[in-house]
Design goal:
By secondary structure, the chain is of the alpha/beta class. It folds into 2 domains: about 70 residues, no CATH class; about 90 residues, Hexapeptide repeat proteins (UDP N-Acetylglucosamine Acyltransferase, domain 1). The chain has 3 helices and 13 strands; from the N terminus they run H-H-H-E-E-E-E-E-E-E-E-E-E-E-E-E. Strands 1-2-5-8-11 form a 5-stranded parallel beta sheet. Strand 12 and strand 13 form a beta hairpin. Helix 1 runs antiparallel to helix 2 and helix 2 runs antiparallel to helix 3.
Length: about 190
Amino acid sequence: MPIKSKTELVEFINQDTKASNRSSAKASFWGDEIWKFQINLRKLEFYSYKCTRNKFYILHKLYYKFKHHHLSIKLGFSIPINVFDKGLSIPHYGHIVVNSKARAGKNCRIHEGVNIGATNGSDKAPIMGNNVFIASGAKIIGDITIADDVCIGANAVVVKSITEPGTTWGGVPAKKISDNNSHSNLSKALF
């Protein structure tokens, strides 16, 4: 899901701002590295797409790619471009590893210690719906799908598809623990 126009870029950043409970899309000069990472991620997604259409944008792409690499190392994030739709929220520093083949719908909130990846040499990674909340330490592994409005609890290990929307899952391996949806864990500005 590449960002194909400046209008889409603004939409993505505005939705990320709401999802992160921010009053402004502008990052603070000091600190605010997570938000700087998110804005940079969106700009890199935009310029990576533009670069395929017009080589004039190569310098922009290289600049944002360098910043992406620098902030990724600083924050402990391994989050590739074009994985998360509008409304990405990352509330904390800490290791987050996401496979480049994974896909997440709108309004995904992802905490520290999360791993979303493939397994056994496969290039197939999880596909997640809209309004998914992923708590600290959760692992979502393999060629699986996660339905809309799902909440994945802390340290859960999800290795099978979750097809029932609006539910909460936890444990190792993850099992349904309630019929509560993810909305109480996401920004109220989204609903």
